[in-house]
Design goal:
alpha+beta, Uridine Diphospho-n-acetylenolpyruvylglucosamine Reductase, domain 3, Vanillyl-alcohol Oxidase, Chain A, domain 3, eight-stranded antiparallel β-sheet, five-stranded antiparallel β-sheet, 14 helices, 21 strands, globular
Length: about 450
């Protein structure tokens, strides 16, 4: 079977604000096709990058060399329900994986709030859900298969833990991941409860809310004194999803009405505080029971760009308060809520933003077409003062020099990178900026 070529047209990410024109774009359908394409590009001295759903908000996919799209390498390859393990193609969308697992009576133990990403894209950037006893999605990886620059293949397992711990969250810098073996659990239902609470009360009760729920997150709108809290807990109760009309109304409010408010704020920035307060008044409480993947994932059609920081859980409230003070003091036009989630410590991935500590993730956004750098730079300065680490799939303004000291296993990751990709075939401008050159110091 021949590799499918898609020409030299531009690639654009989901947000529409990052693009590139690769010399060649291919859609391989097998490991052999990936190996041949990668080996050929490396022999020509060209870089190789891999794209999933394009949900990263930075330029880590961009290349003027070879861009590989793994959409044809998707689906479940093997299911061992008794062992709680499945093998899945790297190009599989999380939404597709969830549906296939459900047919086998299985589920991922945790998910982020959307399911549009490819499995490889979500895992390789440290994507996470929320739940103080649950790690980032990459902690679910038991093994993975890599194609290296010379076209050889490598199965990464705990037989060589250094390689596996580097490969779980690698930003695509080690090779082309073609499949994963993931730990899964029996399918389960969640009781999903959503309601507004005064922001001051939410922050005062934060430890109880985080510790008292399987999955807790909250959203707060600048210029408003209310927070939208979401509590998802496992239950043996019968599934009672919201009625279709209620679901449609909620999706319209979260997408159509919110998009209209964002458009109005972009045109009339001085009205953003009023619009934010109006949006919070429209948020109605809800409660239902549904299959886990239907509770975790939400439909998101409003376009934006995003920055997210992982900070020590204990610093969460202080970081939030500092961000809100900066928004007010600098009169920043922020119409999007700040999203806050919590995960367990993670030492299974050398570059995990949650490495070695209970972590709170704080995500900030800016609506499409609105200036974001001043706001994001202010948030970054605050997060850095509290030992923050950036989400690898979101925007940040850091370089390798500033990042190296924030990751205890940084040098161990770089050693594996030098070993697997000594000539930097998988390194583009983004990776040179955030990881440094292969084999070089972080200050290069």
């Amino acid at each position: 079977m021949r590799k499918k070529a898609t020409g030299r047209g531009p690639w654009v990410n989901w947000a529409g604000d990052e693009s590139c024109t690769p010399r060649r774009t291919l859609r391989p359908g097998s490991v052999d096709e990936v190996a041949a394409a990668t080996k050929g590009a490396a022999a020509e001295g060209r870089t190789v990058r891999v794209v999933g759903a394009g949900h990263s908000f930075n330029d880590q996919v961009c290349t003027d060399g070879l861009l590989l799209n793994l959409d044809r390498m998707s689906g479940l390859r093997h299911v061992d329900a008794e062992a709680g393990l499945v093998t899945v193609g790297a190009g599989t969308r999380l939404s597709e994986l969830n549906a296939q697992l459900a047919r086998h009576g299985l589920a991922l133990p945790n998910l982020g709030d959307i399911d549009r990403q490819s499995v490889a894209g979500a895992m390789s950037t440290g994507t996470h859900g929320t739940g103080r006893l649950l790690g980032n999605l990459a902690t679910q990886i038991k093994a993975l298969d890599l194609v290296l620059a010379d076209g050889t293949t490598l199965t990464c397992t705990e037989a060589d833990p250094e390689i596996l711990r580097a490969a779980r969250v690698s930003l695509g810098s080690l090779g082309v991941i073609t499949s994963y073996t993931l730990r899964v659990v029996p399918a389960f239902a969640l009781r999903a409860e959503t309601r507004t609470m005064p922001l001051a009360r939410t922050l005062d009760s934060l430890d109880d809310l985080v510790d008292g729920n399987d999955h807790f997150e909250f959203f707060l709108f600048p210029h408003s004194d209310a927070a939208l809290v979401k509590m998802n807990n496992r239950t043996g109760d019968a599934v009672r999803p919201p009625r279709e009309l209620a679901r449609s109304v909620a999706e319209f409010a979260e997408n159509g009405l919110f998009d209209a408010a964002c458009r109005a704020g972009r045109r009339f920035p001085s009205q953003i505080p009023l619009l934010n307060r109006a949006v919070t008044r429209l948020m109605a409480p809800s409660s239902h029971v549904d299959h886990s993947h239907r509770v975790f994932a939400s439909k998101r059609s409003v376009r934006f760009t995003e920055m997210e920081w992982a900070v020590p859980r204990a610093a969460c409230t202080e970081v939030l308060q500092e961000i809100l003070r900066v928004i007010d003091r600098e009169r920043l036009d922020v119409g999007f809520p700040i999203e806050v989630r919590f995960v367990a410590p993670d030492e299974l991935s050398h570059l995990s933003p949650a490495y070695g500590r209970e972590t709170a993730y704080l995500a900030v956004h800016m609506y499409q077409g609105m200036p974001w750098e001043r706001y994001f730079r202010s948030v970054q300065d605050i997060a850095l003062a509290f030992e923050g680490r950036p989400h690898w799939g979101k925007r940040h303004l850091m370089t390798a020099e500033g990042l190296a000291g924030r990751y205890p296993a940084w040098a161990r990751f770089q050693a594996v990178r030098s070993r697997l990709d000594p000539h930097g075939t998988f390194t583009n401008a983004h990776l040179r900026r955030v990881l440094g050159p292969v084999g070089g110091s972080a200050t290069c």
